[in-house]
Amino acid sequence: MSNSAKAEAVLALHRFGMGPRPGSVAAVGTDPRGALIAELDRPLVLTAAASLPTSAKAYRTVADANARRAARAKQAQQQAKKQQTAAAPVMSEDQAQGQAQGADRDAAEMAAKQAAEAVPDPGRPMYLQEAKLRIEAALAADIGFAERLVWFWSNHFCISAYKIQSMSGAYEREAVRANALGHFVDLLLAVEGHPAMLFYLDNLGSMGANSIAGINRSRGLNENIAREIMELHTLGVRTGYTQDDVISFANVLTGWTLVPPGDNPEHGGEFTFNPRLHEPGGQTVLGKRYEQEDAEQGRAVLRDLAAHPATATHVATKLARHFVADEPPPPLIEQMAKTFRDTEGDLKQVAITMVSSDEAWRGPPSKLKRPSEWGVGMVRATGITVVDPTRFTAGQELLGEGLWRPSAPKGYPDDEASWIDGIGRRLDIANNFAERVAATADPQGIIEDVFASQIAPEVKQAVGRAESRQQALALLFMSADFQRR
After folding, report:
1. Tally: H helices and E strands in the chain
2. By the number of CB atoms within 10 A of the CB, which of 49, 96, 179, 456 ranks highest?
3. Which residue ranges are recorded for the region named Disordered (predicted)?
4. pLDDT surpassing 60 at residue 99
C-alpha cells in the first residue's frame, strides 16, 4: 500500500469516520470511497439494545419512582407531625400553632426530603447504559461513517437530557438510528412524533384556542415545536415562511402528545393524538390548505416540508459543513441537494454523493473536531473498545459537549469558533487519559501501526523526544493529526 493510499485512507477515517483504530487503515484499503459506501450497507442496529428499555418504558419507570418518592415524603411528613403532637406539652391553640411553624416544621421537612431521596432515580442509570452502548459502537466500528451519520442526525434533531433524561438514549435509538440511512421524510415523521421531542419542545400542553380543552381550561397554543421544525429541522432560516405559517402549523400539531402514566402499568409514555387538544378546522401553511381532522393533518404538513426545495439545501449544507469544512464548497452542496431532490430525500444516497465527490476530498484536514469526535478518536487509537460511561460522559461535559445535553434546540455548533477556546481543557483530558493508558498504549505503535506513519514529521519528532510515555501520548493526542480532519 503506497504512502498516498495510506494518506487517503487516514483522511477518510478522520473526515468521515471516527478516526483510525488498530486495523482500520487496512479495512479502508486502497479504495476509501468504496469502503465508506460499503459501510452504509451494514445494519445500524445496536446488538445489545434489546436489554435496554423502550422510551415509553423508561418514562413509566421514572414516573413510578417519582410517585413513590412523593408518597414516601408525604408519609414521613405525616409521621413527623404525629410524633411532634405526641411529644408536645399541653398548651393553647395559639402556642401550638406558633411552635409548629418553627423547629418542628423544619424537622418534618427534613424527614420528608430524606424519605424521598431514599428512592433512587432510575433515569441516571438508564442514561449511562444508553451512553455506554452508543460510545462502544463508535469505538468498535471499522470506519465509523455510519455512526457519524447517527451522531449528526441526533444533533440535528436534538433533544436534551437535562429535560427528558430517561428518554434521551432511547429516542436516538428508536427515531434517529432506525431512520438515519432511510428517507428524510420517514426520519422527520419519526422524530417529530416521538414523545421525547414533543416533551422537549413543550407540545404536550399545547392546545388550540377553540379546542375543547382550550375552551375549558382557558389555555392556549405553544409555538415552539412548529418554529423549530421549520427553522432548524427542515426549511432553515429566512426561507419564506411567516409568523402566520408558524401559528397555523402549531395549531396543526395541537393534540400531538403522549399517553400519561396511569393505572395500567403497560401503558404510558407512548405517542397519542388527543382530539380534545386539537384546534378544529383546516389550516393554511406555506400557501397550502390542510383539512384533515386528526394526526394526519400534521403528518401531511411534515411530508410537504420534507419535500420542499429549501429543505434539500438546508440539509445538504449542514451535512457538508459537519463532515467537510466550516465553509463547504458550494458545488458540493448543490450536488448533495440535487441528490436529495432527485431521490425524494434518500439520505443514504445523499451520503454517497458526498463521499463520491472530489469536492469533499480536496481540502486539507483543517476542520476542528468537536470534543466528542476527538475524545472517541483518542480512545479508538489505543484499541480500547469498552468504556466507563460515567467517566466518558463527564469528560464530554467538561469539554462543553455533554452527551444529549445541548443548551438549545439548534444543537451543538459545527464551526471552529465555537470550540477553539476549549483546547486548554482538552489538554487536561489528554493528560489524564495518557496517564491511565501509558502502561499499555505505545505512542510509536500508534504512529506506525494505527496511523500508518501518516503523522506530521514535527509530531513524530516531539513524541520521540518526550521524557515519558505519558508525555508522548499527551503530545500525540493534542497534535493537529488528532484534533483536525
Report:
1. 26, 4
2. 179
3. 70-123
4. no
